[in-house]
Specification:
The chain is an alpha+beta fold and 160 residues long. It contains 3 helices and 8 strands; from the N terminus they run αββαββββαββ. The protein is 26% helix and 44% strand. It is extended, with a radius of gyration of 30 Å.
């Protein structure tokens, strides 16, 4: 019997506490089984951490449509707001384009940079999160407005 394995002896040495069995009589040692699930769980956790960072993230490149408004609050915080135009050119027809307008809000250090360096017509890239507000008009109808609260700002060109 040199090269043959006795099935009865194999089954008697492996019990349910240290292995994983399937219907196909396939045995996986418990250490490999645990390490497999540890890899699966760590993969899920790392994916969750990455996705958590991607949750509600907006990136827009466009042209500043008006001079930024700068407000210095009594609390010492600085607020900058402006509109950003994103122009999309249509591939099929020459000269046709659509423009999307975004309300942009920035606080503190980023607002100070906007105050010093960003002017009307300047091209910028912003990254932040999308915030939506619900308002009531004078007739009692709900209106929705959205704005991007900037976390990162990159000035692509400036007229300074």
């Amino acid at each position: 019997m040199g090269g043959l394995i006795d099935n009865k002896r194999l089954h008697s040495t492996i019990n349910a506490s240290n292995c994983f069995s399937t219907d196909y009589n396939f045995f996986l040692p418990a250490t490999l089984y645990r390490s497999f699930w540890q890899r699966v769980i760590s993969s899920i956790i790392s994916t969750f951490i990455i996705m958590k960072d991607l949750k509600n993230k907006v990136q827009v490149i466009g042209t500043v449509g008006c001079k930024p408004r700068i407000l210095r609050l009594v609390s010492g915080k600085t607020l900058a707001s402006f509109v950003l135009a994103e122009i999309k050119y249509e591939k099929e027809s020459v000269g046709k384009f659509t423009t999307n307008w975004y309300n942009i809000i920035a606080w503190d250090n980023i607002a100070d940079v906007i105050d010093k360096h960003v002017k009307n017509g300047c091209e910028v890239a912003v990254e932040g999160k999308l915030v939506t507000h619900t308002l009531l008009d004078r007739h009692g109808n709900k209106k929705y407005t959205s704005e991007i609260v900037v976390h990162e700002l990159l000035i692509l060109n400036s007229d300074n």
